[in-house]
Design a protein that fits this description.
The structure is a single chain. This protein has about 500 residues and is an all-alpha fold. It contains 23 helices and 2 strands. Helix 6 packs antiparallel against helix 16, helix 8 runs parallel beside helix 10 and helix 18 runs parallel beside helix 20.
Length: about 500
C-alpha cells in the first residue's frame, strides 16, 4: 500500500471516529435529559427567549387577562372557572411552542412546560389526599357532630361569636378555609337565624379567622403548601407565624365584638351521632400529616409521596370497615324535632368507600389550579415575571413588595399571586418569605371576594353576608393586617 493510500485510510478513520464521537455525545445528552431533568431544565432555561416585547407575549397576556375576567364573572355567567383558565393555558403554550419551533428550540419549551406540570402534579396529589380525608370525615358526620354540639351548648350571641371564630382559626390550620368557614357559618345561621346582624358580623369574623388560621401551618392554605413543597421554608418554621396570625384575627374580632348583641338566642336541640370509624379516621389523618412531614424533612422526599402513603391508611381502614360492616339504618333528621330518626331506605349508604370520596373532590377547583400553574408558568417563560420581579423586589424593595402582595390578593386569588412569586424566586431572607406567605393569605380577608371562604359564605348566607357587609369592616380588618406584619417584624427579627 502506498504512502498516499495509507494517509487516505488514516483520514477516513479519523472521520469515522469524529462521527462516532458525535453519536456518543448525542446519546449521552439524550440520557442526561432523561435521567437528570433538573440539570437539563436549568440549562434549557438559559436558552429561553425574552418574548415580553413580542406580539406573542402581548397575545398571551391578553389571553390570561380575558380568562381571569371570566373567572371573576363565574357566578354571573354560571361558567365554572376551570374552563376559561384551562383553555387560556393551552393557547398560551401553543403560541409559545410555535415561536420556539420556528427558532429550532422546541426542546426548551417542552422542558419548561414539563417542569410546570411536575409542580402541579405534586400539588394535586397532596390535595387529593387531604380532600379525601376531609370528605371522609364529613361523610362519617364528624363536622355535623361538632355543629350539633355547638348548637346545643346554649351559648349567648357573643360567646358563639368567639367560639366559632376560634374554632375556625384552629380548624383551618389543617383543613381548607372554605370548608371551615362553611361549617362555622352553618352553626351561626342555625342559632342566629332570627338576628341577621349577628349572622353578618359573625360571617365576617369567620372569614378573617379561617384565613388567618391557615397561615401558621403548611397544611392550612394552598399558598403555604406551595412554599413548603418548594423547600424554601422548613415545616416547623411556619409556626413562627402563629402569633402574627392570632393578632390578625384578634384585632378585628375584638372591635367587632361590640357590634354583637348581648341577647341569648332561643334554645335549639339537635342530636347527631357519628358513624362507625369517625374518630379513627381523624387519627389516621393526623398520622398522614406526620408521614408527609417525615418524608419531606427526614427523607428529603416530596411531601406528596408521604401523603399518598397516608392515603393507604384510609384505604386499608376502609377495607376493614367494609369486611366488618353491619347493616344499620341511616339516621335522618326529623324536620319537626331536629332529632335523628331511622331511615330504612338508606341502609346501604353507611358502607364506606374511599373512591366515593375521591369522586366527590372539588375537581373544578383542582383543574382551575392546573390552568393557573400553566398560565403563570407561561408568563414566567415569556419573561414578564422577571421584569416584574426587578420592579417589585429591585426598585420597591422586599418589604414594600410583600406588603403589596397582600393588597393584590384581596382582589385576585392568592394562588396565582403566590405561584408568580415562586416563579420569580427573588433573593429574600427567610423572614421575608414568611412575610409574603402571611400577607398573601391574610390579605384576602380585606374583601369578601379575596378568598374562597368569603365567596362561599356570600352564597351560603345570601342576602345577609354580602360584599358591602364585609366592606364595612374593612378598616378594622386592615388594622389586623398591619398588626400581624408588625408582630412578625418584632418577634421574628432574627430571620430578616
Amino acid at each position: 500500500m502506498s504512502a498516499s493510500e495509507n494517509q487516505d485510510c488514516i483520514t477516513d478513520l479519523e472521520d469515522c471516529m469524529k462521527d462516532l464521537n458525535k453519536i456518543l455525545l448525542g446519546c449521552l445528552t439524550a440520557a442526561g435529559l432523561f435521567l437528570f431533568p433538573n440539570h437539563a431544565w436549568a440549562e434549557n432555561l438559559s436558552q429561553s427567549l425574552d418574548l415580553s416585547g413580542h406580539w406573542v407575549g402581548y397575545l398571551c397576556v391578553g389571553l390570561f387577562a380575558v380568562a381571569y375576567i371570566f373567572v371573576i364573572l363565574e357566578e354571573v355567567l354560571e361558567l365554572r372557572k376551570s374552563k376559561p383558565m384551562m383553555l387560556a393555558a393551552a393557547l398560551i403554550w401553543v403560541a409559545i411552542a410555535l415561536v420556539y419551533k420556528d427558532q429550532g428550540l422546541s426542546a426548551v419549551a417542552e422542558t419548561a412546560i414539563r417542569q410546570d406540570v411536575l409542580d402541579y402534579g405534586e400539588l394535586l396529589l397532596f390535595l387529593i389526599v387531604s380532600i379525601a380525608y376531609i370528605n371522609a370525615m364529613e361523610e362519617r358526620r364528624v363536622f355535623d357532630s361538632l355543629r350539633a354540639w355547638l348548637v346545643n351548648k346554649g351559648l349567648s350571641y357573643r360567646q358563639l361569636f368567639w367560639v366559632t371564630g376560634i374554632l375556625a382559626f384552629f380548624i383551618s390550620s389543617v383543613s381548607n378555609n372554605m370548608t371551615t368557614a362553611m361549617l362555622m357559618c352553618a352553626v351561626v345561621m342555625a342559632v342566629g337565624k332570627d338576628n341577621p346582624k349577628f349572622v353578618g358580623v359573625s360571617c365576617v369574623n369567620t372569614v378573617v379567622a379561617a384565613n388567618a388560621g391557615g397561615e401558621f401551618c403548611p397544611f392550612g392554605d394552598i399558598t403555604t403548601l406551595m412554599v413548603w413543597q418548594k423547600g424554601i421554608i422548613e415545616f416547623w418554621a411556619f409556626f413562627t407565624l402563629f402569633v402574627p396570625s392570632v393578632i390578625n384575627f384578634l384585632i378585628p374580632a375584638a372591635i367587632m365584638h361590640f357590634a354583637i348583641p348581648k341577647a341569648q338566642p332561643a334554645p335549639i336541640h339537635s342530636q347527631v351521632v357519628t358513624r362507625r370509624g369517625a374518630k379513627r379516621i381523624v387519627v389516621l389523618f393526623l398520622l398522614t400529616v406526620l408521614t408527609a412531614v417525615g418524608f419531606q424533612n427526614s427523607l428529603s422526599m416530596p411531601a406528596a409521596v408521604g401523603m399518598m402513603a397516608g392515603l393507604t391508611y384510609l384505604q386499608l381502614f376502609g377495607y376493614f370497615l367494609h369486611i366488618t360492616h353491619r347493616d344499620e339504618p341511616e339516621l335522618g333528621l326529623d324536620p319537626m324535632s331536629g332529632e335523628q330518626t331511622p331511615d330504612a331506605d338508606a341502609e346501604d349508604s353507611l358502607r364506606f368507600d374511599v373512591f366515593h370520596h375521591l369522586a366527590r373532590m372539588e375537581w373544578d377547583t383542582l383543574l382551575f389550579f392546573y390552568g393557573v400553574v400553566l398560565c403563570v408558568g407561561g408568563m414566567n417563560f415569556l419573561g414578564y415575571l422577571r421584569h416584574l420581579s426587578e420592579f417589585l423586589y429591585g426598585e420597591l424593595g422586599a418589604t414594600s413588595a410583600n406588603m403589596l402582595v397582600g393588597l393584590i390578593s384581596a382582589l385576585i386569588d392568592n394562588i396565582p399571586v403566590m405561584f408568580a412569586i415562586l416563579a420569580m424566586r427573588p433573593e429574600m431572607s427567610e423572614g421575608q418569605w414568611l412575610l409574603v406567605t402571611l400577607t398573601a393569605g391574610v390579605g384576602g380577608s380585606l374583601l369578601s371576594v379575596g378568598s374562597a371562604a368569603g365567596v362561599a359564605l356570600m352564597g351560603q348566607a345570601k342576602g345577609i353576608y354580602t360584599f358591602m357587609t364585609h366592606l364595612k369592616w374593612a378598616p378594622v380588618i386592615a388594622l389586623g393586617y398591619l398588626g400581624s406584619i408588625a408582630a412578625h417584624f418584632i418577634m421574628n427579627a432574627a430571620l430578616f
